[in-house]
Amino acid sequence: MKPSKAQEIHAVLREQIVSGLLAPGRRIVQENIAAEFSVSRIPAREALHLLAAEGLITIEPDVGARVAPLNPEELREVYLMREALEPITVAASVPFLTAEDLERLSELVDEGDALAAEGDIAGYLRMDAEFHDLMSMRSGMTRIQREIHRLKEANRQFRGVYSLLPASLPQSNIEHRNLVEACERRAAEDAADLHRVHIRRTRLTLDNHPEWLQTAGAPGSQRIDATQ
């Protein structure tokens, strides 16, 4: 069954929010959404109410819709769990990575350099997801990997906000390159330690700047056509 216009708009805006491209506090203007998607205000309004029901936006009389703030306590809990679990799967995976796996990891790092230079946040986040999935895919630890996947979904919005910072993508990819070097040496524990620090840096940066979780004022934050 074909989704309604409201559902289509909801899906696009939801992805922009959970990926961080629409940052916390960003105003979403109903009229702009209608114009952007070439629809009347009715499906635009319905899409906003769907997002509000999920807790992704707030709608206030005489104020309108804004992307909801993020919870710093959730940030800490989710990232601490990732710091504990992901290095386990990385360490278990490294000895079994194939030559093709290592080649693909190197290709992804090269792609990451280009995407970071272009400021392509959405493209970089897609590359980042593939990179980290590949890093741990040979672990054989399916139960832990399922939990990690759930945690990654929970922290996508935090990761997206962090990616708006101008220096975040180049720094992230330097760390990716170091991870690949450890994998090529088959240094499983080194890779696990580097991965732990890689996750921790994001948590500590956001933890030290709780204002970025409340408003769209993080340096370098993007403007989306459907917003103010």
TrEMBL record:
Report the SMART domains cross-referenced here: FCD (SM00895), HTH_GNTR (SM00345)
Q: Where is the HTH gntR-type domain?
A: 3-70
Question: Do the record's keywords include Secreted?
Answer: no
Q: Which InterPro entries match?
A: GntR_C (IPR011711), TF_FadR/GntR_C (IPR008920), Tscrpt_reg_HTH_GntR (IPR000524), WH-like_DNA-bd_sf (IPR036388), WH_DNA-bd_sf (IPR036390)
* UniProt entry tagged with the keyword Transcription: yes
Q: Which UniProt keywords apply?
A: DNA-binding, Transcription, Transcription regulation
Q: Which Pfam families match?
A: FCD, GntR
PANTHER family, alphabetized: TRANSCRIPTIONAL REGULATOR, GNTR FAMILY, UXU OPERON TRANSCRIPTIONAL REGULATOR
The protein's name in its UniProt record? GntR family transcriptional regulator
Please name the taxonomic classification of the source. Bacteria, Bacillati, Actinomycetota, Actinomycetes, Mycobacteriales
